[in-house]
Amino acid sequence: MPRHTHMSDEALVALVARGDDSALGELYDRVGRVAYGIAYRILRDERLAEDAVQEGFLAVWRSAATFRAERAKASTWIVTLVHRRAVDIVRKEERRRAEPLQAEARPETPDPSGSAEDAAWLGFERDRVQAALRTLPDAQREAIELAYYGGYSQSELAERLGLPLGTIKSRMFAGLARLREVLDDAESEGSWTPRLTS
Fold this sequence. Notes:
Strand content: under 5%
Structural class: mainly alpha
Largest sheet: none
Helix content: over 70%
Distance between the termini: 43 Å
Radius of gyration: 19 Å
């Protein structure tokens, strides 16, 4: 039944470059545990390590066409992408912790209660994401909404939906990649008109 189990990692990356999300799921099944172990060693936090793995595999999805087998094994390339994301998250977390101290020193810091413009912008962004989510296939949208709005981990989702973890991962990777494309396209065209839903 599995379509890709006999293929090399490098062949799977070539399929991912052509938009095959089940090949991405197979790569996750092979490399995901090692990648998570490395991310966890750097971040020491399960949720952040999961984020690093997810962002790393999103990078695989987006940049598979640039992979060169003569430079590195596919598994090494994937783990490197996850490692970079983990290091980026560490830096972001350090900046976030330093932020309140810097904010006190800045006279131009806005009122912490937030301005009407901030609230309007947040509302606009929320509508933008909701409208983009509605363009996704139902299975991808369900996985993303349950993870981000329901707070479920990917393993909890697999259990809740009665699906293999690899399937949940590939749905989320493909859905998030598509979501990013939709939001980027709308932004670059300058044609985004948020629709409010009741």
